[in-house]
Amino acid sequence: MSLYMIKENLDSVKQNIEKACSLCGRAAESVKLIAVSKTKPVEDIEQAYAYGCRDFGENKVQELVEKYEKMPKDIRWHMIGHLQRNKVKYIVDKVYLIHSVDSVRLAEEISKEAVKKNLTVSVLVEVNVAGEESKFGTSSDEALHMVEEIAKLPGIRVKGLMTIAPFVENAEENRLYFAKLKQIYVDIIQKNIDNVCMEELSMGMTGDYEVAITEGATYVRVGTGIFGERHYSTV
Ligand SMILES: *Cc1c(COP(=O)(O)O)cnc(C)c1O
Q1: Tens place of pLDDT for every residue, the chain, 235 residues?
Q2: Ligand 1 centroid from CA 192, angstroms
Q3: What domain range is 75 assigned to?
Q4: How remote is the CA of residue 115 from the centroid of ligand 1, in Å?
């Protein structure tokens, strides 16, 4: 995408974030923008970087590792896609936050690799609040239990929750799902679980991040709204 478009898009996303924050009386700094760069070339990431972005989201291990090698080391890489246990070892020392922990077995693998490398890896538990069959994530009812189990593991720290809301025409339709994730988050905070430091709610994408912000998002993950449509090539 042209240099000009990425800057324009970033400016308007940031303005929208500010507007949504002022609508609900939140400080604009309380929402962190993740530029979702999956499928996009490093040239596009370099443009966004030049305009101040330091948080980037990827959903594939190999792509994240390749981009990590090529880009400056002050970038915070966010793993936002489904993670297979056999690939954990490639990214534990490269990611700032794993948003997509959806099973205790995956958390155990992250813990094992983190201990081996003497790290503490920060994670979010992914919750499938809408109960969509096509999506990963634990059910709303299981979320607390999963957080409790993961909290017992060494080398891993639960920092909050993440959800991917349904694809809808009208973002308002997702408001109840964002509100529900927030409620689960508050319930978990009240349990005061050792080694759990609930402070992040990762919710909202290009189509619905303003609604997510008014329901309490601390991370919004915006791809298309910054980099334009994705083209999935078959080669
Ligand atoms: C691709 C992706 C996004 C960004 O989606 P857009 O609609 O392009 O903003 C956000 N979160 C996750 C988990 C994704 O896979």
Answers
A1: 666 799 999 999 999 999 999 999 999 999 999 999 999 999 999 999 999 999 999 999 999 999 999 999 999 999 999 999 999 999 999 999 999 999 999 999 999 999 999 999 999 999 999 999 999 999 999 999 999 999 999 999 999 999 999 999 999 999 999 999 999 999 999 999 999 999 999 999 999 999 999 999 999 999 999 999 998 765 5
A2: 31
A3: 3-226
A4: 30
**Residue 9 maps to which CATH number?**
3.20.20.10
How many structural domains does the chain have? 1
Could you give the C-alpha distances from 138 to 30, 110, 162, 209, 229, in angstroms and in order? 26, 17, 10, 22, 29
* Rounded Cα gap, residues 173 and 6, in angstroms: 28
The verdict on residue 232 lying in a domain is no
| Angle made by CA atoms 164, 137, 91, in degrees to the nearest 5 | 90
Tell whether 203 is covered by a domain. yes
Cα(114) to centroid(ligand 1), Å: 26
In a domain, 42, yes or no: yes
148 in a structural domain: yes
**Looking at ligand 1, which residue's alpha carbon is closest to its atom 7?**
206
Task: Answer for the pair 143, 182: CB distance below 8 angstroms, yes or no.
Answer: no
Residue among 32, 59, 169, 209 to mutate when testing ligand 1 (max atoms within 8 A of CB): 59
Residue written as token pair 């490398």: 117
Distance from the CA of 222 to the center of ligand 1, in angstroms? Answer: 6
